[in-house]
Amino acid sequence: MGLGESLRDAIDKLRGKHILDRKAIDEFIKDIQKALIAAGVDVKLTFSITNEIREKALKTEQVEGLTTRDILINLLYESLVSIVGDEYKPDIRPKRIMLIGLYGAGKTTTAAKLAYFYKEKGLKPLLITTDRYRKAAYEQLEHLAKSINVDFFSIKDASPEEIIKEALKRIKRSNVAILDTAGRDSLNEELIKELKLQAELFKPDEKILVISADIGEVVKSLVKAFNDAVGIDGIIITKMDGSAKAGGTLTAAKLSGAKVMFIGTGEKVEDLEPFNPKRYVGRLLGMPDIGAFIERVNRVLREESEELPEIKSNITLLDFYKQIKTLSKLGPLKDIASMLGFSSLPKDVLENSQDTLKKYKAMIDSMTEEERLNDALLNNRSRIERIARGSGTKPEEVKEFISKFREMKKIYRQLLNNRDLRRRFSIGS
Ligand SMILES: Nc1nc2c(ncn2[C@@H]2O[C@H](COP(=O)(O)OP(=O)(O)OP(=O)(O)O)[C@@H](O)[C@H]2O)c(=O)[nH]1
Ligand SMILES: [Mg+2]
């Protein structure tokens, strides 16, 4: 069972538990420890983060509208993000990349994937191989280059030095030149000599060590050995899709100090992505959008900070109107609202089209000042009918609007009551 699966199992077991009692927390922590250790995550690291989650969880008061599950997922998510490494933002510009690594690590496949990645960004890749050891290495890369329609250069039966010298004449300033080198069973003297010589000639901007996700903790000694021998700028971890050890390899890579640049997530050329810890952990936990969601919320809230009504437990209809305008910019909020603990909320509360917003505005415009400040007045039939007439809507629509407003009030109260959310959304108390 992969790490994601066992973490999701642990989370699933929490379903329906509303109370954050010690027993629920302890069980969850045990499950997480088992899952992380089975994935090869360093035992000390595992205990240090799970103990931290337990302590924080025990300190968190029970919050209305948030379940045990919501709180533990938040804590787990943040801990995992902190241990798997940092986000990598590749430089999108012409450059020279040299890929190195042991046999079968995925160098050749990754060379083609990188070419595809940079091509998609509008650059012109050139794929080069100096591998004389792997049978049909030339054909393998040539074939991959053709399949993604990028340039390829090599010379059969020539030495790596000859190939690089000839390649240098062909590399244009606009190229992202990607050099695929030969591997060995281990980093021996011969390979070190060969790689040093090639690096001197090729002058790569980026020397990248390609490793397979299934090597686990060995990544630490491998990174050190390659770095001492030839110097590396970062690593690419391949086969993240197929390895139960992927989580352990990632956390060990972080401990080794290596920068994880990309991860390979499949055999196809498009299965490569710049490493993003939030996206990775979100996917592991079965919530691919959680990281992006939090970023988006923060961004929108920043942008809208002047327009934002003051957060107070007694919001008025005018506040509500401003608030839904802001929230509607966040995109599909309905799933995420439930993820954040607003599970009792009707799904459509946050789905407001521009048309609906216009209607709401018209309704609010048709209200008296008194009504806007005190929605209790709006239980009155004749008031509802007057507002409907004034705004060109039906009384049922006005009623619906009012009931949505009341749901929204609940969200406000939940937000106000939840310290963690308040901190995340940078909302003052
Ligand atoms: N599932 C999966 N398979 C991958 C990934 N990357 C590479 N592979 C597979 O791993 C195998 C070895 O990949 P290569 O790219 O030939 O590895 P290499 O490092 O060039 O190998 P040598 O040239 O022999 O040293 C191939 O079957 C690839 O399809 C990945 O991210 N996911
Ligand atoms: Mg190869």
What can you see in these coordinates?
By secondary structure, the protein is α/β, with parallel strands linked by helices. The protein folds into 3 domains: 3-83, SRP54, nucleotide-binding domain (Four Helix Bundle (Hemerythrin (Met), subunit A), Up-down Bundle); 95-282, 3-Layer(aba) Sandwich (Rossmann fold); 290-424, Orthogonal Bundle (434 Repressor (Amino-terminal Domain)). Helices cover 54% and strands 10% of the residues. The protein has 19 helices and 8 strands. It has helices at 3-12, 22-38, 43-59, 68-83, 107-120, 137-147, 160-170, 189-202, 218-230, 246-256, 277-284, 290-303, 317-328, 334-339, 354-365, 369-373, 381-391, 395-417, 419-424, and strands at residues 95-100, 124-129, 151-153, 175-180, 206-212, 234-238, 260-264, 272-274. The protein has an 8-stranded mixed beta sheet with strand order 3-2-4-1-5-6-7-8, sandwiched between helices. α3 (43-59) packs antiparallel against α4 (68-83), α4 (68-83) packs across α11 (277-284) and α9 crosses α10 (246-256). The radius of gyration is 28 Å and the shape is elongated. The protein binds guanosine-5'-triphosphate and magnesium ion (MG).
